[in-house]
Amino acid sequence: MHINRVKQILSSSADIEVKYNGASVWIDQLNEDGHTATVHLRGPLEERSTVDIGELVEE
Question: pLDDT by residue (tens digit) across 10-40?
């Protein structure tokens, strides 16, 4: 995924499905380096991970 699309998703009120390694995730924030984002799995778990935005896929 490109940095501009990550920014659009973060500013949108729509429920946009994004996947990381096949798992549906919420993007919490774009990190200052511009190459990674903090995400967490959709659902009851709140565990956050830092991932490369190039590995995020919009469904």
Answer: 999 999 999 999 999 999 999 999 999 999 9
- The architecture in CATH of the region 3-58 reads Roll (2.30)
Residue 44 tokens, joined = 């009851």
Q: Assign 3-class secondary structure to the chain.
A: CCHHHHHHHHHCCCCCCEEECCEEEEEEEECCCCCEEEEEECCCCCCEEEEEHHHEEEC
Structural domain spans, the chain: 3-58
User: Where do we find the tokens 């699309």?
Assistant: 5
